[in-house]
């Protein structure tokens, strides 16, 4: 089941959901709107090799904003630090951004229970789109799991800022 | 939990979900097929877009003969149907027949809100030149139980 806004809010108060900073006005009926963090990464090599650590260039989005180029892909992150040991977060786009032609994930929308972090954004621009730090960029819903829980302890646990792929750490598996 | 097609029909009979127009043949095992309306929006300029600039998009009507969506060009549109859902959260998904042609029908804005009332917004991004017609079935919506 998907959590109603009243449950999201009460669970933020009990600490069973972490959203930091939490702004009540960003609650929708069944999700919480999150904002864009300041770091972006782009892969700099001609080939992104899934078996190796790839070189990236870090961009800090200044107050004047940054234009995401049509057809280009960027790794970003949300400004908020979010996680829950009790509910499963899912990441979704918001219409104000989607209608400009910006993907905010490329199908990796499911977050692990127990991973508290700045969720990664996978930004694919189908138009030239100006973005600004702290702009509303996405929304997070929370879902009730069933069954015994084992909390996330993987390589992106508690990550802050934009983090490039680390799948080379288990290449071949 | 997600509503089955049968439960969706039951809830429609109680007016807990209202889909207009409603066609029984559009009910799937756990979703409902929706169609694209007759209008299509797109951006003409390459100038960088800011939040709120969707009002700058050009709006065209899809002619009776259909329209070709150009590969790697972004469009947005709305469903022909209107949906009212005060008890369940709707989510938007592609249909496998459309997806198999390489057409995204949303670009990650799949979550709707409880008390949704209106059309469903679609974002179209084709991986090929793809011809579509107004009112053709293009997506599906599922309904999810809320934890209060």
Structure description:
- Chain A is mostly beta strands and 173 residues long.
- In chain A, 8% of the residues lie in helices and 33% in strands.
- In chain A, the strands form 5 sheets. A 3-stranded antiparallel β-sheet of chain A has the order 3-13-9.
- In chain A, 36% of the residues are buried.
- The mean pLDDT of chain A is 96.
- By secondary structure, chain B is mostly beta strands.
- Chain B has one domain: Distorted Sandwich (Deoxyuridine 5'-Triphosphate Nucleotidohydrolase, Chain A), CATH 2.70.40.
- Chain B has 2 helices and 14 strands.
- Chain B has helices spanning 5-13, 96-99, and strands at 17-20, 32-35, 39-42, 58-61, 67-69, 75-78, 82-85, 89-94, 103-104, 116-118, 121-126, 130-132, 137-144, 146-147.
- Chain B starts with a helix and ends with a strand.
- In chain B, the strands form 4 sheets. Chain B has a 5-stranded antiparallel β-sheet, with no helix packed on it. Chain B has a 3-stranded antiparallel β-sheet with strand order 1-7-10. A 3-stranded antiparallel β-sheet of chain B has the order 2-13-8.
- Classes of the chains: A mainly beta (173), B mainly beta (148).
- The A-B interface holds A 1-4, 6-7, 28-31, 67, 70-71, 90-105, 109, 124, 126-130, 135-136, 138-139, 141, 144 and B 1, 43, 46-54, 57, 72-74, 76, 89, 106-111, 113-115, 121, 123, 125, 144-148.
- Strand 1 of chain A pairs parallel with strand 14 of chain B.
Q: Give the name of the CATH architecture of chain A.
A: Distorted Sandwich
Task: Provide the CATH top-level class of chain B.
Answer: Mainly Beta
Mean pLDDT of chain A: 96
Low-confidence stretches of chain B: none
Instruction: Let me know the largest β-sheet of chain A.
Output: 3 strands, antiparallel
Total number of strands of chain B: 14
CATH superfamily of chain B: Deoxyuridine triphosphatase (dUTPase)
Q: Give me the number of helical elements of chain A.
A: 2
Which blocks of ≥5 consecutive residues of chain A have pLDDT under 50? none
